[in-house]
Amino acid sequence: MIRVMVVDDHAVLRDGIVHVINLEENMKVVGEASGGEEVKAKAAHAKPDVIVMDIHLQEECGVDITAYLQAHHPEIKVLMLTVADEDHYLQRSLDAGAAGYLLKEMTSKELVYGIVNVWKGHCVIPPSMTKNLLKNYKNRRDSYTGDHPLTHREKEVLMELTKGLSNKEIARTLFISDKTVKIHIRNIYKKLEVKSRSQVMLYAIQKKLIPPMNA
Q1: Is the pTM higher than 0.85?
Q2: Are 98 and 76 in contact (CB under 8 A)?
Q3: What are the tens digits of pLDDT across the range 25-35?
Q4: CA dihedral defined by 16, 19, 25, 26, rounded to 10 degrees?
Q5: Using one digit for the tens of pLDDT, what is the confidence trace for 64-102?
Q6: CB 2 within 8 A of CB 8
Q7: Which residues are paired to 77 by β-bridges?
Q8: What is the rounded distance in angstroms from the CA atom of residue 46 to the CA atom of residue 8?
């Protein structure tokens, strides 16, 4: 069962999203919120697996809330759901640690798809926005990673990250300690100049290590 929280300051829209999610047998809405402080309090109590987050909230920007959640509850996947189709909003969201980004013009089926896939650890982005995003990442990575290649073990950890595995799961898979996994991930982030697992996914897509996970 995927536990979902819905964050939107428009009650009618929030009710519609909640209705769509609750129709799914493998999903359950465990909380709703309309602003930043409410999200922070309810997320700590409800412990959702995925938060569907609007960007433009009255009290606080959804991007800033996402950054807070990733700092205090990194196990929660944040799926941005917004009308903002500008590249800089997408970039800011991923930099803050969002696991996916969907536009409100999408269908109910695409919303469900997005929730399931970010829950699995994949990065979900609208096809219309993927090309420019990957181009930007290619420019950033190509100018940096050539002089600082990943070690063999770091590449192994990277591939496990793209599968959506937790640190503990990676440790068990590679027969290393949790502490060692954290060190490798920190080194990967530094070398690739990324801040989140969603950005690691984009790097892997850009390098054609894995196929794109488009909504």
Answers
A1: no
A2: no
A3: 999 999 999 98
A4: 50
A5: 999 999 889 988 999 999 888 888 888 889 888 899 999
A6: no
A7: 50
A8: 17
